[in-house]
Amino acid sequence: MKLTFYGHACFSVEIGDKTVLFDPFISGNSKAAHIDVDSIKADYIFVSHAHGDHIGDLVRIAANTDAVCVGAAEVAGWLGKQGIKNVHGMNHGGPISFPFGQVRGVSALHSSSFPDGSYGGNPLGFVFTTPSGNFYFAGDTGLTLDMQLIAIWAKLDFSVLPIGGNFTMDVDDAIRAADFVKCNKVVGIHYDTFPPIAIDTEKAKASFAAAEKILILPGIGETIDI
Question: What percent of the chain has pLDDT over 70?
């Protein structure tokens, strides 16, 4: 699989002939100013929760691509009000079958509200099981013992975990999360975008290495094989 990082918590994964985009927030991120939002391709867009730094470009990209937008039922309903009809509402549970594989909605310890303050439904993480490989996107979350269930559902090839602290797990808790889900290859997200989540990236990589894990921090706009 190929993963492209677009900054903050936004990335895409190529699964077979499908491109799955996550939490599109690009134009509002000054560190991603070089990314052309309108050139981003997506067949599916998965949304972990309704905060502005995760849905900032959701409607724009959904309209451009006609991608199937997947998220909590409340997110799907909100998208409909924005004129986006190609939606699939979900919640914790599953798995749900898609043409590229199956996706299970899992717990994320966070909050979820739209930019106007209205209720955004339950925040979610996602476990993908596909013929191309399996991965876990935690969404915005603190460390939770529920993560231990994920290894029952899937043998993961990689995990995408927040590492910036303050609003989510920090580096140390992300290392514990990697133990819980039994996956030592981690793509770090949700760090350095704003001052409260600034981290020492070299120290973070060293901490993962000391725990015999790999922390991957792609550059914004970088595509990696994973």
Answer: 100
Residue 147 contacts residue 117 (beta carbons within 8 Å): no
Beta-carbon contacts of 170 under 8 Å, excluding residues fewer than 6 positions away, are 163, 164, 199
The reported pLDDT for the residue numbered 94 is: 83
**How far apart, in whole angstroms, are the C-alpha atoms of residue 105 and residue 38?**
28
Q: What are phi and psi of 65, to 5 degrees?
A: -105, -20
Mean residue pLDDT across the chain? 97
Q: For residues 9 and 55, is the Cβ–Cβ distance under 8 A?
A: no
What predicted TM-score, i.e. pTM, was given to this entire model?
Answer: 0.97
CA 79 to mean position of chain CA atoms: 18
Domains parsed from the chain with CATH numbers: 2-225 (3.60.15.10)
DSSP secondary structure string, 35-94? S-GGG---SEEE-S---HHHHTTHHHHHHHH-PEEEEEHHHHHHHHHTT---EEEE-SEE
CA separation for the pair 220, 91 (Å, rounded)? 30
Express each pLDDT in 30-51 by its tens digit. 999 999 999 999 999 999 999 9
pLDDT per residue as tens digits for the range 79-128 = 999 999 999 999 999 899 999 999 999 999 999 999 999 999 999 999 99
In the structure encoding, which two tokens stand for residue 35, read together? 């990314």
Distance set, CA 167 to CA 74, 97, 140, 155, 191 (Å): 22, 31, 8, 28, 10
